[in-house]
Amino acid sequence: MSRRPTLKDIARETGVHVSTVSRALDPQKRSSLTEEIVVKIRQAADRLGYRPNRIAFSLRKQKSMTVGVMIPDITNMIFPPIVRGIESVMEPLGYASIIVNTDGDSDRERRLTETLQERGVDGIIHTAVLRSDPNIVEAARQGLPVVTLNRKVEEAEIPYVINDEEAGIRMIFDHLHDHGHRRIAHLAGPRDLSTGLLRREAFCSVARDYGLSADALVIEEASRFEEEEGRRCAKEILSRSPETTAILCANDRLALGAMDYCARNGHPCPDKISITGFNDMPFLDLIPPGLTTVRIEQFDAGATAARLLVQMIDGCDGKVPRETVLPVSLKCRNSVLRIETDH
Amino acid sequence: MSRRPTLKDIARETGVHVSTVSRALDPQKRSSLTEEIVVKIRQAADRLGYRPNRIAFSLRKQKSMTVGVMIPDITNMIFPPIVRGIESVMEPLGYASIIVNTDGDSDRERRLTETLQERGVDGIIHTAVLRSDPNIVEAARQGLPVVTLNRKVEEAEIPYVINDEEAGIRMIFDHLHDHGHRRIAHLAGPRDLSTGLLRREAFCSVARDYGLSADALVIEEASRFEEEEGRRCAKEILSRSPETTAILCANDRLALGAMDYCARNGHPCPDKISITGFNDMPFLDLIPPGLTTVRIEQFDAGATAARLLVQMIDGCDGKVPRETVLPVSLKCRNSVLRIETDH
DNA sequence: CTGAAAGCGCTAACAC
DNA sequence: GTGTTAGCGCTTTCAG
């Protein structure tokens, strides 16, 4: 229970000044010291079980070696891999991460942003879903390094890393089209989340490329990315447009909900209707019939964002690209059936 | 980009001494100041956008208002709810959590424990799976508040929170027995993880209570809590003891693997064989035929551990119970079939 | 009731 | 090469 030893203790022990001890223990400056004294100091440090006090370090250097990671909700299975990706680059560099869950609550988000700043984080990775949040913009404007993940902030020059939502939607639309589907409805995500909006826009754009007129498009928007909303919207789509042969969903959870509704109401997937997702969350291969979806590299996304943030922290702002778009890929399972085309 | 304001800035602004500002901003000591000056100071603080510097606070008070949370792997779906449970009590009290993933690597765990101590965490919640790890014991012995989750440490008087593994196994064994099963094999977890061992012991104990002799027991031990091992062990069990009618698995992932193997090899669950799990992880209800399992309240476990840790940090060590056992419950789905008993 | 001064543990400019 | 000194931003005696 005895107090942790400090530089002062080592200094007393070895009969040198604290600053000498400090230098001896710093690999950078060790060189400017006598070999002999360095050895003596290091031995004493080992003997006493010295561990540097990072709080004192932080106060002095104005650098906490800590970053904040804001995510909506860690229990949402797509976030843990992102967190590990971030950690995979941060931890070896000596950074710790403080992870906070915003629950999509912008008031909570504001408070948490303040807390992180009080704690002197060196930067923030903001895995946001909200399309606009002034708090983080303000923090960035004050000079705090920030990079956003999964979303771009229009108001400021904040570097962002996103997945190629457009390409993903195109892949999956192509896939459906290749399988003969012409009546493709979109189960869209909430408009106020960037992924929801982007995917919806991509859907419209691809549909247009295929020559489908905008007003012929069946789109039903979920208010949250949850199974229950998937069910509700699937019901809506089926009743509004019974001739629909495929539902392209904005994410996996919506797709799962839609699949459940369809199965319970005489439209089993894939026999009666084809359904696709987005994200490729874990365990999808265990859920029949196997959702065809767009695979996102969550771990890489986290690691990439972390690397950018470190660059910014190190002051290499100039070299940090404003936009980083990560590739996505198609993951085919069994939720899409090949059907006869009309001609 | 201008530097964050400090107490000194407010002092200059208001023409009082920093210590007065410090007092004015501390709700505890505000009372000993003139109402007038307090108001003036608070206004100045607001105007300047003052935010206390927690690093300086920490250094002075020798209290970081930070706790370490060690978990094996956040991508394992049972941990996020625990983390949120911890956060639900820590955050309102002003504590931040640094979450680290040990990956079950005891070397890594040692390094991380040191890192957390360097950062001056006020305590550690150790959601461990390893049955013995000297590092955390050593940290606790040095006076650092520690509580373990999901496991008890024999070597030291460290408070722990565990689930009632014994009761869980008993419930599920009873359930199988009630459904006519007499040939029940155990797909055990790794012996070096406390959950693995505890559940195995409980299984043996219950079997004994039912009058099954120990040497008649079919037990196959997985080397990791993973689907692949579930498959391997299921194969082993089926070939060693073809008359088995039920496999009681040490956790859900093993059960899922076992189910997969059985399905692919002419023993579909539940028709040919009944299978049960443990944990009730998310999305289980979407995976056919629906795994019957033991439900653990992960969020509560995290919250409980956090409350204990806070008590310890606050110096109420005396009042902290050494052992806290959380109740579990049976979650019935469709993986257990009723069969005819022999008599 | 408020000011002065010390100090938490560390680093860094400046001496010698 | 090493010691001296100052100070990061805050709290907390101790005076007055």
UniProtKB/TrEMBL annotation, chains A, B:
Keywords annotated in UniProt: DNA-binding, Transcription, Transcription regulation
Pfam family, one: Peripla_BP_3
PROSITE patterns associated with the record: HTH_LACI_2 (PS50932)
Cross-referenced InterPro entries: HTH_LacI, LacI/GalR-like_sensor, Lambda_DNA-bd_dom_sf, Peripla_BP_I
TM annotation in the entry: none
Domain HTH lacI-type residues, every copy: 5-61
Domain of life: Bacteria
Record flagged with keyword Protein biosynthesis: no
Molecular function terms, GO-annotated: DNA-binding transcription factor activity; transcription cis-regulatory region binding
CDD domains: HTH_LacI (cd01392), PBP1_LacI_sugar_binding-like (cd06267)
Protein name: Glucose-resistance amylase regulator
The organism's taxonomic lineage, starting at the top: Bacteria, Pseudomonadati, Pseudomonadota, Alphaproteobacteria, Hyphomicrobiales
Gene: ccpA_7
